[in-house]
Amino acid sequence: MSTTDPLHAAHTRLEGYRGSTRAALLTVLWGILVLAAGAMLAYAFSGLFNMVRASALNSIFSDTPDGPLGENYFWFFPIGFIGSFLAFALHRMWGTRFTGTPFTPVLGTLTLALIGWSLAAWYAASRFVQPDQIGMAVDPTFGRDETWGVWAWIMFAGRWWWPGIITALCATSLIIGVVSRAHRRRRDDILGDLLTGGRRTSGVITSAPTPSPDAARVLGRLTIQFTDAAGTQRWIQPTVRLERALIPAIGSPVTVLFDPLKPGDTRRIFWSFGPGTTREEFTQHTV
């Protein structure tokens, strides 16, 4: 039996990571590895794409070598997959611990990975196999040259559209990240107003997400019931990301901060496990 509240202890431990040098260094380290592993995986897929492309452009009897990408790119698949999996998870974990929010600092983990993919894809594309003759699959053995069909022309253009698609995905991820962070800033502005002009009341957890047995964290919805200043019972269902140790039990108390002039506006309702005296208490778990 312990005399220490495990929920409070876990919260204190995680709060200690916020803005810490350790969390910052590990975030940077794993961010670099996310980029590197993404680049390695993209180079491997580019090598595979290059092989398919070469078979579409040149005759099977062509003397043209496979190109500078060679065959060693196959080794990059297991390294890239394992490295991406580990680096992605750990960068996300330490980045959110450092900021104390659902966001990693500066760039999101997926955006970092796609930057690595884009850089590697463009580099690999510059080293793709060149056709023996544009528009013709030259057969040096039997002289049965074949004019390119639609598929061959599509693969010829793959030197541009292959890295272009990856770059477009990277740009999309970056834009989504910017929009999400802007939305977060608007929420922070509303919270700033409510911290001085809002009303706090007690709430209670009526439902909580259930983690899988091997999950360290859980993403799901809490259901929180509270009573506003007019005596009306209200419920909110915020989407939360919680460490396993922080998942509350049904009936656990929380602090609810709301706008007494607009008690039904869910955009102006915030909650906290603690007394709700700081901005961070109301933002660190809600997605």
UniProtKB/TrEMBL annotation:
Residue intervals passing through the bilayer: 23-45, 73-91, 103-125, 160-179
Sorted UniProt keywords: Membrane, Transmembrane, Transmembrane helix
The keyword Transmembrane appears for this protein: yes
Organism superkingdom: Bacteria
Protein name: DUF3592 domain-containing protein
